[in-house]
Amino acid sequence: MLKIYNTLSRDKQQFVPIDPQAVRMYVCGMTVYDYCHLGHARVMVVFDMVYRWLKKSGYNVTYVRNITDIDDKIIRRAAQNNESIHVLTQRFIDAMHEDADALGVQRPDHEPRATQYVPEMLQMIAQLEARGLAYLATDGDVNYAVRKFDGYGKLSGKSLEDLRAGERVEVTDNKNDPLDFVLWKHSKEEEAEEVKWESKWGSGRPGWHIECSAMASKLLGEHFDIHGGGADLQFPHHENEIAQSEGAHQCQFVNYWMHNGFVRVDNEKMSKSLGNFFTIREVLKQYDPEVVRFFILRAHYRSPLNYSDAHLDDAKKALDRLYTALKSEEGRGEGRALVDWNEAYAARFKSAMDDDFNTVEALAVLFDLANEVNRSQSAELAAQLKSLGAVLGLLERDPTEFLQGGSVAQGVDEALIAAQIVARNEAKLAKNYAEADRIRKVLLAEGIVLEDSAAGTNWRRL
RNA sequence: GGUGCGUUAGCAAAUCGGUUAUGCCCCGGAUUGCAAAUCCGGUUAGCCCAGUUCGACUCUGGGACGCACCUCCA
Known about the structure:
Layout: E1 3-6, E2 11-14, E3 22-31, H1 38-56, E4 60-68, H2 72-81, H3 85-102, H4 118-130, E5 134-136, E6 142-144, H5 160-165, E7 181-186, E8 204-206, H6 208-220, E9 224-230, H7 234-249, E10 254-260, E11 263-265, E12 268-269, H8 280-284, H9 289-297, E13 305-307, H10 309-328, H11 344-354, H12 359-376, H13 379-391, H14 399-405, H15 414-429, H16 433-445, E14 448-453, E15 456-461
Parallel strand pairs: 3-4, 3-9, 9-10, 11-13
Antiparallel strand pairs: 1-2, 5-6, 6-7, 7-8, 11-12, 14-15
Helix pairs in contact: 4-6, 4-7, 6-7, 9-10, 10-12, 10-14, 11-12, 12-13, 15-16
The protein binds one RNA strand through strand 3, helix 1, helix 5, helix 7 and strand 12.
């Protein structure tokens, strides 16, 4: 039985879906005005893993990950670039898909864009207004009246008093309460036509939080199973989503809230504002995407994850070990696509995954299994290793291709390597070991490791 | 200031009230022309102080340190 750590209750709970056969899951995606960084990579990979495991567990999963394609930062960036927001956002949506694809992230079932759901948002705001939870402020914005919603703060564990005591709460006169947030922003003269929508409150555009409430209920219903996102979205974003959805629909919004930990650099959160971020495409110039995916899955999704070259190098070596085990059984017996869940390693793997998606433990099982494969030379177990890896979106490539791909794309030409191997084998046959060792050393200096075996000489990149 | 989370061996990172986590690194052995890979074995843990317990890294209390949220952020 699957257990999930629920932010709402702050403990692990038995997962019971609303519909026994199906799971409905929503994850907050990206605001598309720039390239995705490693923090975004973590959300995508983590919830991709969750998505895969739920499907593997037999559920019919509907996974929605939204795209925020209208907001202040987008408008500002488009103005800077002197381009339309549509052109800007489309470019970064395409880039996001490239990055996600590289990391082996499966496409969600729906990727709704905020700009395509404005009518639904307006309808929801009207509902909130009708219930007395929203009001038109003097400046023309429509705000949410936080103190009218019972239980505001239940997700983040904060009371309104605690929040007000915070030093950083901004004071604005057009809000009834400093914690009220914007549902609908009135248009400004200078804004482009493409960021203006008509409404009963006048021309404007949606606030950030309302899009998720509107799109989630449209695509998943008013009450669904799992809602995820980065830990920083807990407050205020997810708190506000609850206020909007439960305020408008008068029913429980989400049963299980999941939040992933941050990627850190030098022990500090990687973020746009700190400027200490690495984009996915930057990192992929240096490391194989599967290494990056493995690196992310190597830490528990709720724990902080420190980024550094040393850690990526370490991850690369660890993944090499798994692929090396697969390579030893390559070609022997066809790898079956299905996992034999009765087998001992698979059973351990499953119980690890069922324990709040403990990929760290699941990977430890894979290493134990790899050791067993090396020892037993069992093609059966190798197939099991491969298929368990595939559950996590790992180990799906040809082992030789992976091992020879190495960490850096460019390097010594393969034909040259082959020629050097031939030359070295000739030297070996002539018992000219000094020459043979010299060739091996030259290649090693280029990051190429030669491995002699009964079947011949293999090579791989460090 | 308020709230929450964390502190595990050289590095990374899990589980667990008593039994080898795991990966990388390091040491010894097997194997190899020598290596590499692999196998066998080994060294290095649980921030500090109390308490509960037959027994605590694991539970409770206190302290120190770190991180995060309270403002846009995955």
